Amino acid sequence: MPEKKSPPGGLASRKIRVLIAKPGLDGHDRGAKVVARALRDAGMEVIYTGLRQSPEQIVAAAAQEDVDAVGLSILSGAHLQICKRVLELLRAKGSGGVRVFLGGIIPAQDIPLLKKMGVAEVFLPGSSTQDVIRLIESSLPVR
Q1: pTM to 2 decimal places
Q2: CA-to-CA separations, 141 to 81, 83, 99, 100, in angstroms, rounded
Q3: Contact indicator for 74, 102 with CB cutoff of 8 Å
Q4: How many angstroms separate the CA atoms of 56 and 54, rounded?
Q5: Which residues of the chain have pLDDT under 50?
Q6: pLDDT tens digit sequence for 56-81
Q7: 9-18 in b/e burial notation, b at 16+ Cβ within 10 A?
């Protein structure tokens, strides 16, 4: 059986890179830091933007860091507007293949709309970090 070869420069040649961002004005980032640490412990490279990032800052950081996924932590209630803008900016930069996932206080009725926009998954309080890891590993191209 022939050995499967990975494309040069593909995911097989490097770790999965994930940007964890905390958009908006709320200052609670404990959950974002917990997820960042879990992803790092799972062998991924994690870039954390810090608090109060705009969608423009998040997408600029994602492009600069050449990430595979962006995790947004939103508790302020502005998740629909922020996710829409981040996804628009990623597509405009040609980074539409970057997987976006969301965590925070998100009303259940908004989840279908977020997924329709292009959010890969929404993680509510109490979600397992293992579920976040599995989502990222399973939603990226085969390595």
Answers
A1: 0.87
A2: 28, 22, 11, 14
A3: yes
A4: 5
A5: 1-9, 143
A6: 999 999 999 999 999 999 998 999 99
A7: eeeeeeebbb
